[in-house]
Fold these 4 entries.
Entry 1:
Amino acid sequence: MTFQPDDTDRKILRELQADAGRSLDEIARAVGSSKTPVWNRIKRMREAGIIGQQTVMLDAEALGFEATFFVLIRTSEHEAEWQRKFLATLRARPEVQEAHRLAGDIDYILKVRVKNARAYDQFYQALISEVRIYNVTALLSMEEIKSTVALPL
Amino acid sequence: MTFQPDDTDRKILRELQADAGRSLDEIARAVGSSKTPVWNRIKRMREAGIIGQQTVMLDAEALGFEATFFVLIRTSEHEAEWQRKFLATLRARPEVQEAHRLAGDIDYILKVRVKNARAYDQFYQALISEVRIYNVTALLSMEEIKSTVALPL
DNA sequence: ACTGAAAGGGTTCCAGG
DNA sequence: CCTGGAACCCTTTCAGT
């Protein structure tokens, strides 16, 4: 199930992560190969789902998203039905950029991106009205020091 | 400093976030306009830095990155020099995908993506050997429920 | 498995409404 | 500010090595 990229595959993935907007020629040159072999490898990796969605990074601040919260959630409920509803709620809410189920005494962590603290409060009220939650801690980001989706290949 | 996208700009940004790999024609059709105006808007937003890097989402699990940690850091040091070194360390470490400075009693949160728990421990040892840190809590992700970089425009 | 080339399609730009 | 079209570049495929 684990895909084992060879050296050239890894170089291609690194280049695509860094800038997916370049031409095949440029990427081929960057990895020291030529168009067709690089094209075949990209095609294979796309079909295998290794390479997924292509997207653009937007400037969140400039677009008015000035508040990022990390939300630590403890719950006492662990039934299937509660969890199903909780996950559905998270997936339906576009301000939730990340959600992970955790090991340990904190059950879930969310990354929530909103325009301001009021918008966070609206999200919070909506969340606790939809599912029972035992304890919530919100950590407010003052400064985004680093943000990347690139894997350290 | 805050860019005010109009309705069409917002539609374009939504489409690009969802799939930046389509042709201008397709995007123009999706937003109910045509090539040239959409192209001009994208160009303007690129030049303004609203639209940044173009990238691909890779399948982390399939590539062997099976462990994600959220790391909560408390420090007693708040001098400029300590902070400079700490930030430089975080930025230099490719396994750190996110780093935020926080308000409140936890000073920093990191998202760290590694192949396994041993690789996390190596990162942790390297970090505490480079800068003094008062207290560290590592939260291990058991399940990635949701992960997106899209802003809720 | 790579090279080179050819066809089709897409991006970029410009003239005109 | 939009439409349509022309030129050029890139992607995609294929035959040859």
Note: Chain B is about 40% helix and 30% strand.
Entry 2:
Amino acid sequence: MKQEERRQQTTRLLLDTVKELIREKGCHAMTMKDIMDRSGLSKGAIFHYVKSKDEIFVWVLQERLEETNTQFMNEVELGRRSFEEPMRKIAESILQYENAQDVTNKVLLYLLGKEDQPVIAEALQQYYERSMELSRQWIVTGQRYGVIPASVDPDKTADMFVLLTLGLRVRSSIPLTAASFKGHDFTSMISDMLQSRK
Amino acid sequence: MKQEERRQQTTRLLLDTVKELIREKGCHAMTMKDIMDRSGLSKGAIFHYVKSKDEIFVWVLQERLEETNTQFMNEVELGRRSFEEPMRKIAESILQYENAQDVTNKVLLYLLGKEDQPVIAEALQQYYERSMELSRQWIVTGQRYGVIPASVDPDKTADMFVLLTLGLRVRSSIPLTAASFKGHDFTSMISDMLQSRK
DNA sequence: TATTTACAAACCAACGGTCGGTTTTTATAA
DNA sequence: TTATAAAAACCGACCGTTGGTTTGTAAATA
């Protein structure tokens, strides 16, 4: 089973290199040459693992999706005590306050600009559906433990929540001066949304 | 003044051709060759008017921004009777229910994927600021005419509204099956948001 | 008449992607 | 165990397209 090991090792190297480069240069600026030089792999090797450059970004998004899944699940469990805490965590991870090494925003925006490609369309669809599902579960759990009013409609609210997070991702990609930034606290926004709903 | 006339004529031709092609093929698939063939202009001529291909997209967005500006202002005036009507109009224009010839979503998503370029960053910033300003004015006007509760915070609500519209734009770019689409009526969403706020 | 503008088209570098070939690993059977 | 066929991992020269440049020319303007 040495071949399988090598395969995993190489794909790991590839993904890590790519994420590094995205962080440094951005999705568009990163070239195949960059990946070759940084990883030490040849062009042929890379294209042996991946069908196109764009598919690499799909990989990155999907891997991040897995991570988010487990992370979110943990937060949801936290949600039995308070619904604000998971919200804050999630908002922070989106806004990259602390972990600026997360490339989800960049990759997501990049892929959205190429949604006409079938592979990308599928990945985006997966991403959206997963986001909706996670949000719904978070609300339902909160309701079960009594921290979110039972009157709240999970579907409707999850929809709104996902729209807001997508909006957040977009806005965080727009370079704004301190003067032009009129954003407000995301957590309190969600709090209002959940509690005011009769 | 014949030169000025020719200039305007050519730029008009360029912009219209580009918008047509974006509608047909998407931003990424559209090539310079396409623009040349369709418009009849040579490569040299096009690059005489525009510094780069990306700058064309900035043009398109800015032109659309002007249109939106006047359109929104009209809707705001309508808002003295009801705040739902302008909302519905705006949501429809975003979701492209009727006017599928609008390329704003595509262009916006394309530009967001390249926000590291200074020219694009500036355009995006303008777009965001304008959106915020328009939303704020809409709320303030609604309050003046008594159709929006005075208790609503214009800044905070405008922020949320813009985030939602950005989210809408993103979601409308994700190809979803009827089964996976769990979206709800945008207008009623905004209604809830505005009226429930104490 | 001099200069700037509008346009043309040959040219270029860089990019993503392909292809034929080599080496290494795995599977098969004598 | 060993011989061998097959497949996977990997390499790097090569290719077509693409966005962009440059050089040149004709028309408009000053």
Note: Residues 2-3, 6, 31-33, 43-44, 47, 52-53 of chain B lie near DNA strand D (CB under 10 Å from a C1').
Entry 3:
Amino acid sequence: MPSDDRPARPGRPRAVPNGDSALSPRDQILDAAAALFVEHGISATSTRAIAERVGIRQASLYYHFAGKDDMLVELLTTSVRPSLEVVRGLESRVPSSASAAGALAALVVIDVETLARTPHNIGTLYLLPEVQGERYDGFRAERTELQDTYGRLGSLAADSDVAAAISPVRLGGILIQLAETVIQLRRDGAVEDADRDAIVATCLRACGLDTAAVADARREAASLLAAVAV
Amino acid sequence: MPSDDRPARPGRPRAVPNGDSALSPRDQILDAAAALFVEHGISATSTRAIAERVGIRQASLYYHFAGKDDMLVELLTTSVRPSLEVVRGLESRVPSSASAAGALAALVVIDVETLARTPHNIGTLYLLPEVQGERYDGFRAERTELQDTYGRLGSLAADSDVAAAISPVRLGGILIQLAETVIQLRRDGAVEDADRDAIVATCLRACGLDTAAVADARREAASLLAAVAV
DNA sequence: ATTATCTATAGATCTATAGATAATGC
DNA sequence: ATTATCTATAGATCTATAGATAATGC
């Protein structure tokens, strides 16, 4: 059996031995905090509960984090960062090498995919009242940047009737909300391909694209993403 | 001045006199709890904080409610109930006296309006993790009924391409989420007519309706609502 | 010596109950 | 007598710090 005892790190051993997590203690804590924050909320999660889930004593958390807030900040950033990075690359290609509709479709695909894969569905954390405090302005700014991109691409992609009726800011709010539908879906159960497809298509239709235009945009998105792919 | 001293009720007077609220003590408590739950979350709101906001002592809450849970249940129900009632009346008119698209438009208008007017934006409470517990099954069932109605009306109203691509359940999830965009908008600031219009139009477009069909549905919704009006 | 944990605990809550009290209403 | 409040408080947390300890690494 390949029971490799990973390079034992210095420090007093845990009262309850580590189990087999390959994660650093820091990441073990973040993972436990994420699961509990999502399930019970932030204030309802005690530092003791987090520690218990990790398998260490409550006080030991403070060696790694200043407190729950500190953990939260790190969790929040991981939940937008990936979309944001792809997005920054994407927008620069419009309209020279990509249509706005194609780029929007790609954005939605990426964002939905990121949210669908996020550990413990931490996208839900954004909805919690604690996160509305100034303490998290930095994170909210990143999310706003994402929303603005939705607004810009959406307005560019929009059919003239939609563009006339809905301002970019409003459209951005609606589109990001649509993409985030996936968060709610995950709450209720598994997210299937058909769910993702439905969300992407709805975002495009929200901009006034018809069935043919939707199909075109998706095709374009697929190749765009293949080009940017990791 | 019409400073009518409302019929003084029996009971020991408050240490800090009532101010001028026309609400019953029970409703004063609900109102304070709503504001604090929305702003800080449920667990982060102490019974002491609620009492303080009302202007009574912490222990006095327990004369009216068994605890925070008890208040929450009541708040949640007020936030769906109104939409639900109108909705039950609405659906029965399809397709005899109303088209599905017209009825869907009416549903969205009502729901958005209800959420836009709800005191302290208590629609946000639904998003909190505490509400996912079984304790609130009853409430969640009502919300599911609303979602199902969105799914049924949406699928009936849908253009054949959309109907083929998106199942009623999924469509219901997407549409209710769209309507609830108004909750997020309220978080950021005032909700304007243009916001409501944008949401209603987007729901219809999500079903594959084009500009002309959207306009028709809205017109129909207006007269439907006039007929059901309070 | 450094690192990562541990044990112990102070101080600050927070919830919910017991029992007293100050009004009204009969 | 009934009602709606009050005061006081027990018991259960919960957070964050101080200081000890058991490893590794030099």
Note: Confidence is low (pLDDT under 50) at residues 1-5 of chain A.
Entry 4:
Amino acid sequence: MPDQPPTRGRRGTERKGDVRERAILDTCEVLLADKGYDAMTVGDIAQGAGITRGALYFYFGSKQEVVTALVARTVEHLWERSRATAAADEPRRAIAAAMQRTVELWNAHGPVMRTAIDVSSTVPEIGELWDRTADLFIAAITAVLERAGIRAGGEPDQAAAMARVLCWMIERTFYHASQESRENLQAASATCEHIWLTSAGLHPPGQPA
Amino acid sequence: MPDQPPTRGRRGTERKGDVRERAILDTCEVLLADKGYDAMTVGDIAQGAGITRGALYFYFGSKQEVVTALVARTVEHLWERSRATAAADEPRRAIAAAMQRTVELWNAHGPVMRTAIDVSSTVPEIGELWDRTADLFIAAITAVLERAGIRAGGEPDQAAAMARVLCWMIERTFYHASQESRENLQAASATCEHIWLTSAGLHPPGQPA
DNA sequence: ATAAAAATCGACACCGTGTAGAATTTGTGG
DNA sequence: CCACAAATTCTACACGGTGTCGATTTTTAT
């Protein structure tokens, strides 16, 4: 069991291995951006981190585990920030804020996000991680839609169904746009926001004509 | 085997290899649904088709080529049917028809479609195939949006931008829903259609309340 | 019937993965 | 400083899947 050894004061927790582990994850992120998931070999990661394959297997049981840890580290970042602006703000403002935060995350970690999506179907752990993240988003979108009065449809959870679809729209759009350029991502985000607002029945603020 | 052995008249072009090739592709589709892309080995495909690995490599140069051919065969099916209802019909009817056709394709070949998406980033040929298909869709959606008068926005191609986003929305939603059940897919399709209509400014026909 | 083309097979080399055990470093208390 | 245990690293190996090659058998056309 990972127990806390009698840590002196506060700094006893910085084992050499912790640094290596971070180095491995960092290298992995670079390689992911560089050559992609399947082209990236365990040997590459080890070499980038300054150790041999054998040593890497001391920290992670497999290539998948490395990437899983990297994805976890990345989306965790998102979960915390998500809790902040949960369903507090005014709808239009909440939407804009959420989109902006998401754009920033994709700008900073696009390759990791894209890889997570790509391997979600083949690496169960990553799939679950991603699904949980999506559920968070869907819940947030649902909240906004309901506040805008969307129960209209026959089924009781019309808002949830729409939220799910809108979530996938954003995911997939960001997936593609983040591959092109930051400008593209920003523009795509605006388009998504527009459709989201329209679907919620909220007219875009400064709409000419 | 339902084959015409008499090479009389016109049927001389039915080489034995053509049958095998189809058998390989069929087996591949079954295995894709059964164990997924990476779990599926070239040996598995060969065995399912009743030949050895070595023989399979006479027809296809690699596992990727097999899957590429399978994807091509599947989406080709779509291109033809797409040309029929190009931009002819009345908007609302055109949308409904397109969605229904797409639902049917995903019901019949869900695993192939999902695999195509999954490996699009790692198998360039499949990526191109899929992008071309998406472009077809985007063009069709753009046509509908413009007919509904969507140039409103500042940029000249607001309709195209929205169409792209809507296309990805449908793709991703179908990807997930087709994994669950036919009912789910049908329901998801309805939700997508609703958002599409709303984005086009066309009120859904039988809307209560 | 026969020769070219088409199709099939078995064996081999290559590469990446994951494991095992030995060897080395690091931290700690006597 | 020394010894000992835990943490860390290395080298070597076995396994499985891929793709290639040359030999061999089956089809097909004449």
Note: Residues 91-119 of chain B form the longest helix (29 residues).
